[in-house]
Design goal:
48% helix; alpha+beta; 18% strand; six-stranded antiparallel β-sheet
């Protein structure tokens, strides 16, 4: 019996998206044909459609295909709508109460961060930023900390999209400089923004990790250096942020032990 409400071609396309999402490295057409069981012409047409619509990207160097920014955006937005904001908000309120500084929550959308929650300091800082505002990932501590905790393939794609606009003399101005920064962030577990967005502005960010250890959001605290010194921030604020990041990530299913085991196997 034929189900008139069933679209076979859509199922095939969704299957290809699912296969791409399960691999950190790019998958070539031949590999996708073998794994999916689809005919080569059918698989090629699906990939062309996904690429043109932004759901997949083709790597110029390898000829393989990645999940595109549109899928990442949809996934992150869906996660946020399911409760990432509600999950983080009590922690944000506590941090805001203890520090008096601005506390922000953001997700990554392509090469930008999008603010999904913002508890403003009583001392006006970054007055042009609000929920829904976007910043290039290299200009934000949250952008950097999320990039540092994404699969390498996704990071490479994002780096190619960034326009390295300078906001201050301290702004990271190249892929090389950003890559070096990401290495340090992975080791430290947090990121800072030391007057890279605006002179006199400092921020500390931690990743919010899902059960696979991938950053689905970034949480930061930002303040004027005229009110708090870097030394005070690193001594008092950084431990507070790291604790909140660990607790929120644990609620989302992340386990530190699992990451350690994966790292020892690699």
């Amino acid at each position: 019996m034929i189900d008139r409400d069933y679209i076979k071609s859509l199922e095939k396309g969704l299957n290809i998206i699912s296969l791409l999402s399960q691999h950190d490295s790019p998958l070539r057409l031949e590999e996708l044909v073998r794994i999916s069981g689809l005919r080569k012409t059918s698989c090629f047409r699906i990939l062309q459609t996904l690429t043109r619509s932004g759901f997949a990207l083709k790597d110029k160097d390898t000829g393989g295909y990645f999940i595109g920014p549109k899928i990442i955006s949809i996934g992150l937005t869906a996660l946020e709508n399911r409760g990432i904001r509600e999950l983080a908000l009590p922690f944000m309120k506590e941090i805001r109460q203890k520090t008096g500084a601005t506390v922000n929550l953001a997700i990554l959308n392509g090469s930008d961060v999008i603010f999904v929650e913002r508890l403003q300091s009583a001392h006006i800082v970054e007055g042009n930023l609000r929920v829904g505002s976007r910043l290039s990932a290299h200009l934000s501590s949250m952008g950097k900390v999320m990039l540092a905790h994404l699969p390498e393939a996704e990071v490479s794609l994002v780096l190619k999209q960034i326009r390295f606009e300078r906001k201050t003399e301290k702004t990271l101005a190249s892929i090389k400089a950003l890559k070096e920064e990401l290495k340090k962030i992975r080791v430290a577990g947090f990121a800072v923004n030391n007057e890279e967005l605006a002179t006199g502005l400092f921020a500390i960010a931690v990743p919010l990790l899902n059960h696979t250890g991938v950053a689905v959001a970034g949480l930061n605290i930002s303040f004027l250096l005229a009110r708090h010194s870097q030394e005070e921030a690193m001594q008092n604020f950084c431990p507070l942020m790291l604790k909140a990041g660990r607790e929120i990530s644990a609620i989302m299913g992340f386990r530190v032990q699992e990451r350690a085991e994966k790292q020892s196997e690699s």
